[in-house]
Each structure stands twice: as structure tokens, then as C-alpha cells.
């Protein structure tokens, strides 16, 4: 009888140890899950997780998440400082740049020789380029820092495509290009203002790099999850080794160094696409033109 009691007590002790071990494991996993959830929603603080109550694994994770939280805060602070700096630069340079453009126009109206007129035109061109660069930098920094938020909403893509094409129709006609809007029926979830900005950047590049007599086409193709707004041109195309680089900030192809531009339009377009849950893709063959596709989600 005593042997049975001893065996029963031993069995109960083993079962208790097993249940206790499982309880500790479940508790540990629950605590780790709580920590990760807090880190993901930005509410993690060391005060919420008292280190004296944590296991070694929990303690290490808490230290890692605390360091990551500090790094994220420092990164956000740096982005805010850069955004403020760019805004200050924009504000301080607005009047000087406007004066440069004004005096360049006044100078061009004066009786000048060929060299003087060429200099006046160069001053005006460079002033416009500087203004475009500053505006693009302000937009990019505000998007990156979250100062300017995107507000995607369901809408039809055709009106936006037609508005963007209408803006570049005069420039295309002056260069002898055919600019048309193909099939554009379809809807997506997008911010009309900023998506039009991205599309205009794609059109600007297409018109800029397509030689006289060429064609630029805007169209929409709808898929199950995304709608693609495409800008197709008959320009020189982009070598495969450069196709990943062209979306970098300020990247300029060696073959395009004489072409007007600052190398930030595609970067900004990609930021706008990514900010709406979409992406930007290029397909190009040297000598056969390029197609830039702006993919936008069909559901929010």
C-alpha cells in the first residue's frame, strides 16, 4: 500500500512539473507576443515590462526592442529636422529665385546681341531648373517625413489620366510628338492629387526623352488586385543595368547628361506609389522605347 502511495505521489509530482513547465512556456510566449505587439504599434516602453520580473530571454528581447524604439525615435527626429531644413531653404530662396526669373525675362527683352541673348536664356533656364529642384525636394522630404499624408480613396482613373496628358500636350506638340490617351477605363484606390503628380513625372520623362516624330501613350490596364497606369514612349530605351538605378534620388544616366532634368522625378513617383500600397515598374529595350507602369491597389 505504501508503495502505491509513493508511486502516486511521484506521478502527481511529475504531472505537476509538466503542467508547471507548460504554464511557464505559455506565459513566456504570451509575454514575448505582447512585447512584439507593443513594438509593432509603437507603444513599447521599458516601464511596461519590468526587467526584474522577466526571464533571461524576455530581458534580452526587452533590451533589443527598447534600443530599436530609441533608434526609430532618433530616425524620425532626423527626418523632421531635414524636412524643416528643406522647408526653410525653400522659403528663403523663393524670392531670390523669382527675382532671377524676372530679371532674366527683362534682360531678354532688351536689345542684345546673340551672345547676350544666349546668356539671358541660360539664366532663365537655370533659374527655372533651380525652382523645380527646390519644389521637388520639398515634396519628397514632406512625403518621407509624413508631413504630407496621402489620402487614397476609390475612384476612376480615366479623368486623372486625361488631366495629366492635357498638361503635357502643348509640350509634346511643340516637340512634334504624338501624345494620346488609350483605353483608360478602370478604378483603383488612390490619392488623385499625388497620383496625378506621379503620372506627370512619368509623362515629363517620356516627352523629354522621346525624339521628334515619336509617340507617347497613356493607358490603364486592370488586373484582379491592381490597376496599372502605363506611360509608353518610343524613346531610346534604358539599358538593363540601369533600370534599377533610375529610381534612385538624383540619378542621371550618363547618356542623358545633356538632357534637362534633376533626376528626382522617378524617385518621387515611386515614393507616391509606395505610399499608397502600390509600386512603379519599368520595362525597356534599348532602341525600342520604355513603358513605365504605376500600379495602384484596387481595394484599400
UniProtKB/TrEMBL annotation:
Annotated coiled-coil segments of the chain: none
Enzyme class: transferase
Pfam families membership: HATPase_c, HisKA
SUPFAM superfamilies for the chain: ATPase domain of HSP90 chaperone/DNA topoisomerase II/histidine kinase, Homodimeric domain of signal transducing histidine kinase
Occurrences of domain Histidine kinase (ranges): 88-300
EC number of the protein: 2.7.13.3
KW Phosphoprotein (keyword) present: yes
UniProt KW keywords: Kinase, Phosphoprotein, Transferase, Two-component regulatory system
GO molecular function, one term: phosphorelay sensor kinase activity
Catalyzed chemical reaction(s): ATP + protein L-histidine = ADP + protein N-phospho-L-histidine
InterPro entries: HATPase_C_sf, HATPase_dom, His_kinase_dom, HisK_dim/P_dom, HisK_dim/P_sf, Sensor_HK_Regulatory, Sig_transdc_His_kin-like_C
Keyword DNA repair: no
Full protein name: histidine kinase
Amino acid at each position: 500500500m505504501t508503495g502505491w502511495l509513493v508511486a502516486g505521489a511521484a506521478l502527481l509530482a511529475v504531472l505537476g512539473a509538466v503542467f508547471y513547465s507548460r504554464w511557464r512556456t505559455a506565459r513566456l510566449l504570451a509575454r514575448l507576443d505582447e512585447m512584439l505587439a507593443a513594438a509593432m504599434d509603437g507603444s513599447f516602453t521599458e516601464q511596461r515590462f519590468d526587467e526584474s520580473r522577466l526571464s533571461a530571454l524576455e530581458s534580452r528581447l526587452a533590451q533589443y526592442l527598447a534600443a530599436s524604439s530609441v533608434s526609430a525615435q532618433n530616425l524620425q527626429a532626423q527626418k523632421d529636422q531635414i524636412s524643416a531644413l528643406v522647408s526653410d531653404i525653400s522659403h528663403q530662396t523663393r524670392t531670390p529665385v523669382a527675382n532671377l526669373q524676372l530679371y532674366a525675362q527683362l534682360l531678354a527683352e532688351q536689345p542684345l546681341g546673340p551672345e547676350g541673348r544666349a546668356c539671358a536664356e541660360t539664366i532663365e533656364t537655370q533659374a527655372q531648373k533651380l525652382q523645380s529642384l527646390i519644389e521637388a525636394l520639398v515634396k519628397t522630404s514632406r512625403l518621407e517625413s509624413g508631413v504630407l499624408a496621402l489620402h487614397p480613396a476609390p475612384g476612376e482613373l480615366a479623368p486623372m489620366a486625361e488631366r495629366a496628358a492635357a498638361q503635357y500636350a502643348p509640350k509634346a506638340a511643340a516637340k512634334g510628338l504624338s501624345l494620346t490617351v488609350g483605353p483608360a477605363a478602370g478604378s483603383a484606390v488612390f490619392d488623385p492629387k499625388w497620383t496625378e503628380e506621379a503620372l506627370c513625372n512619368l509623362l515629363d520623362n517620356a516627352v523629354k526623352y522621346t525624339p521628334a516624330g515619336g509617340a507617347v501613350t497613356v493607358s490603364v490596364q486592370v488586373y484582379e488586385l491592381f490597376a496599372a497606369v502605363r506611360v509608353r514612349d518610343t524613346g531610346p530605351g534604358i539599358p538593363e543595368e540601369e533600370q534599377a538605378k533610375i529610381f534612385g534620388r538624383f540619378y542621371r544616366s550618363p547618356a542623358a547628361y545633356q538632357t534637362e532634368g534633376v533626376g528626382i522625378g522617378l524617385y518621387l513617383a515611386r515614393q507616391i506609389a509606395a505610399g499608397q500600397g502600390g509600386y512603379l515598374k519599368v520595362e525597356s529595350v534599348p532602341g525600342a522605347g520604355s513603358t513605365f507602369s504605376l500600379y495602384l491597389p484596387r481595394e484599400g
